[in-house]
Amino acid sequence: MADEDLDTGDMFNDPEGFYPPEKEPSSAEHRMLSGQVVRVRLVGNHPLYVGNPLTLSNTLVVNISMEGNMLWNAGRISSEYIETHASTLITGKDVLEIGAAAGVPSIVSAIKGARTTVMTDYPDLDLVDNMQKNADAAASMIPTDPPSSLHVTGYLWGSSVEPLLAYLPEDSRSKGFDVLIMADVVYSHREHGNLIKTMQQALKREREAVALVIFTPYEPWLLPKTEKFFPLAEQSGFKVTKVFEQIVDKVLFENDPGDEKLRRTVFGYEIRWADEELK
């Protein structure tokens, strides 16, 4: 009997409703300390943010209810830290955010007068398109005198930063960025080496240049593994300073396991070049 005569019906089709429907993109607001409101579009389900162990670089390998369609605490607190210290940290500076997701810290940096802000996440069309929509929506809030430019692109941690440096004014392309924003990236433990490599390539070799590493231990039992990032940074030519430990009102994922206080705690670090690296 020929193959075309074999009728399998719906034998190999999944029944309707077999898989849960994918979450549609939603939106969220971040109210700045100034009272301005940043409204962003959030991705729905995406492999980078759901609890399926994957092998892609930059993937969060987790087994709890992390997802992309919400503003995470570290992003909000990073934005508040940036706004509070904008006059010395951000205004007139060149800023790079990696693992930006919705990109609120980048948008706040641009609003507070960064000369250049480059917002990046994993080079996936949907993620980059979502960041671009958020950047476009915030355009009216970004100052033009002096101008503050906000750019969006995909970036794989640890890869060459030359395409990112190309967004900088010509006088800074050989030097690098003044500020790196790294919110909720260090619990991707197997990416620690790539994160360090990006810091080494992208951060300007000047005393005031700084990487902001801000995170919440959503899986508290893995906090010791997360904290291994900091001695690795010190072994790689950097000086690490813990600058705050802030407890927020609510946990982000109410039904997840682990110490609730830790899951409500946001840790903040500033990482700068060690003195011997500046000689």
UniProtKB/TrEMBL annotation:
Entry-linked InterPro entries: EFM7, Methyltransf_16, SAM-dependent_MTases_sf
One cellular-component annotation, GO: cytoplasm
Signal peptide, first to last residue: none
Ligand binding (S-adenosyl-L-methionine): 72, 99-101, 121, 157, 183
Compartment(s) of residence: Cytoplasm
Any GO BP annotation: methylation
Annotated spans, Disordered: 1-29
EC number: 2.1.1.-
Membrane-crossing residue ranges in chain numbering: none
Top-level division of the source organism's lineage: Eukaryota
Keyword Cytoplasm carried by entry: yes
A molecular function (GO) term: protein-lysine N-methyltransferase activity
One protein family per Pfam: Methyltransf_16
Principal localisation: cytoplasm
Keywords: Cytoplasm, Methyltransferase, S-adenosyl-L-methionine, Transferase
Keyword S-adenosyl-L-methionine on entry: yes
Top-level EC class: transferase
Assigned protein family: Belongs to the class I-like SAM-binding methyltransferase superfamily. EFM7 family.
Primary role: S-adenosyl-L-methionine-dependent protein methyltransferase that trimethylates the N-terminal glycine 'Gly-2' of elongation factor 1-alpha, before also catalyzing the mono- and dimethylation of 'Lys-3'.
HAMAP family: Methyltr_EFM7
Protein name: Protein N-terminal and lysine N-methyltransferase EFM7
Originating species: Aspergillus rambellii
Lineage of the organism: Eukaryota, Fungi, Dikarya, Ascomycota, Pezizomycotina
Encoding gene, per UniProt annotation: EFM7
